């Protein structure tokens, strides 16, 4: 296990894109320290900012990142395998476009967490910013695979243009969750901001509380979908804390967004 | 039929030193769940109907086991069904038709794969049935498994996309030769119960029992199989009979399993149960001189435990 400890926080963002478990595998701490990172508008060696040590008795992760990382961006971005564990809050774009492996953020994350993610898993044991699993501006698709679990709250536009995969927010989430969603599953167990699912084409939004849906959604029925027990079991495997009573009995099903075909669904499961 | 040599006994009943000749078939295990055990069993009955023998059916099928909620993927009561066909293509075709007509249509059911999936040997079931959703079907991918949710009038039908297959063994059998129809039937019933307790096997005929054992060919050119006259008590004296004096009824059990070991175990349990019934005169097995199938289940080996 390699431990990277940020020596001192900087007001200038540090971008560590490419510092992934598969990139550092087999490298010595000295070699890792020579890998380039972006500091403002300059490429500098990683060792300028991080103390790099080999810690055989460390955590299970391949890469353990410590220090005040709130202004460190792109942690775990584009990773395809292995495990990264980050002790403290991370900057924007953590896990963006990752295709495999796992990223565990023990504190929280800024915006664009797992943006356009294709696979793997992200767990945030705190709050996440806006645009979790979303598409970048101008892109046609957001997240296309994998799992993101946010233990706390999440910001606006969670799952924007999401195409596949699963995002779970145990806490509240902001406006436009699942907006323009193409497919995939959102599970929102806290309060949900306005315009949830606006423009969604397909996909499933599971909520514990009734969100304020756009007027272009229609109530369909109350029923218990056959797939719900599979999801409840999956949530249990992910260690998701479900609201008491969620998934017991029937769910209220809304169809929408009628402006884009009405093949999406919002399933409200109750619970407190 | 090979020449029988009587030299064995089990529970005091003569066992012919012969073998059951079994052959390889593609097999699938389908787990069906429903809101209640009643509807799971209804689906099972329908889906495994008209599936006694591949001589005249698209598949051989049967109920392997009823499952408790703790044993099913969605925590509801269920059943485990086994299906056998000559090839994976034939198996897929039969299963798609049977699931579509008998499980999809049955209230509250869902359908899951029950075997490990090897992508090179899997068959697509839900992936073919999804079109019934007419564009409203929804796919969900969980832990690498794809499920299809098809809207139906009582909610939705859930079906796994692909199912695993195994190289099964079909055609294991024993013949219970008895002095009366009543004693033969009682022995057959007990033998069926004992064989069905073995995991991974089914007995595809009605109640697990066959009364119309067949031989290969017929005097009629178009008929591939015809009545096994050597075992018909009413033809004794008119044909070369295999039945000893005092025998007036014969029942056959046909056993299909996911592997040879399961078929052998079920055969042994069936023999053991059948020979405990008074009136059973002889146990034997059907074969075609070793020309039909590569699996030879020797009754002597089962008795001697080898």
From TrEMBL, chain A:
Single GO molecular function: formylmethanofuran dehydrogenase activity
UniProt-listed GO biological process terms: methanogenesis
Taxonomy, superkingdom: Bacteria
Protein name (database record): Formylmethanofuran dehydrogenase subunit C
Organism listed in the record: Gemmata obscuriglobus
């Amino acid at each position: 296990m390699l431990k990277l400890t940020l020596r001192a926080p900087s007001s200038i963002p540090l971008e560590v894109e490419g510092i992934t478990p598969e990139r550092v595998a087999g490298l010595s701490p000295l070699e890792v320290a020579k890998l380039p990172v972006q500091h403002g508008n300059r490429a500098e060696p990683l060792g300028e900012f991080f103390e790099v040590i080999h810690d055989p008795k460390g955590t299970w992760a391949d890469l353990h990142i410590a220090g005040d990382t709130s202004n460190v961006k792109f942690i775990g971005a584009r990773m395809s395998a292995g495990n990264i564990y980050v002790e403290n809050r991370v900057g924007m774009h953590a896990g963006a476009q990752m295709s495999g492996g796992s990223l565990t953020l023990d504190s929280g994350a800024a915006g664009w967490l797992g943006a356009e993610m294709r696979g793997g898993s992200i767990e945030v044991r705190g709050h996440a910013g806006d645009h979790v699993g979303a598409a970048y501006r101008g892109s046609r698709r957001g997240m296309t695979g994998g799992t993101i679990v946010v233990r706390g709250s999440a910001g606006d536009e969670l799952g924007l243009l999401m195409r596949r995969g699963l995002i779970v927010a145990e806490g509240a989430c902001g406006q436009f969750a699942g907006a323009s969603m193409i497919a995939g599953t959102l599970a929102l167990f806290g309060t949900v901001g306005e315009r949830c699912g606006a423009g969604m084409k397909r996909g499933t939004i599971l909520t514990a509380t009734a969100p304020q849906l756009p007027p272009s959604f229609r109530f369909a029925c109350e029923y218990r979908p056959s797939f719900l027990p599979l999801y409840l079991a999956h949530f249990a495997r992910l260690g998701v804390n479900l609201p008491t009573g969620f998934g017991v009995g029937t769910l209220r099903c809304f169809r929408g967004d009628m402006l884009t075909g009405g093949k999406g669904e919002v399933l409200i499961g109750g619970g407190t | 039929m090979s020449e029988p040599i009587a030299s064995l006994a089990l529970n005091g009943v003569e066992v012919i030193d012969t073998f059951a000749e079994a052959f390889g078939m593609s097999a699938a295990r389908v787990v069906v769940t429903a809101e209640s055990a009643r509807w799971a069993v209804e689906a099972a009955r329908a889906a495994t109907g008209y599936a006694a023998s591949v001589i005249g059916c698209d598949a051989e099928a049967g109920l392997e086991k009823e499952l408790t909620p703790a044993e099913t993927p969605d925590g509801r009561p269920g059943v485990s069904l086994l299906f056998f066909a000559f090839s994976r293509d034939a198996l897929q075709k039969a299963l798609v038709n049977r699931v579509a007509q008998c499980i999809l249509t049955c209230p509250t059911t869902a359908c899951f794969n029950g075997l490990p999936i090897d992508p090179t040997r899997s068959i697509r079931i839900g992936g073919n049935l999804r079109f019934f959703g007419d564009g409203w079907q929804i796919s969900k991918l969980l832990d690498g498994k794809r499920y299809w949710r098809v809207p139906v009038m009582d909610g939705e039908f859930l079906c796994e996309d692909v199912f695993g297959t195994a190289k099964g063994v079909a055609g294991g059998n024993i013949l219970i030769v008895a002095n009366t129809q009543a004693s033969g039937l009682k022995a057959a019933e007990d033998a069926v119960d004992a064989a069905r307790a073995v995991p991974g096997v089914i007995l595809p005929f009605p109640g697990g029992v066959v009364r119309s054992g067949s031989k290969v060919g017929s005097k009629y050119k178009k008929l591939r199989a015809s009545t096994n006259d050597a075992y018909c008590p009413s033809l004794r004296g008119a044909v070369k009979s295999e039945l000893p004096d005092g025998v007036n009824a014969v029942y056959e059990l046909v056993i299909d399993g996911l592997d040879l070991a399961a078929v052998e175990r079920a055969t042994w349990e069936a023999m053991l149960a059948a020979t405990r019934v008074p009136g059973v005169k002889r146990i034997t097995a059907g074969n075609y001189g070793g020309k039909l199938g590569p699996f030879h289940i020797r009754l002597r080996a089962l008795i001697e435990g080898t």
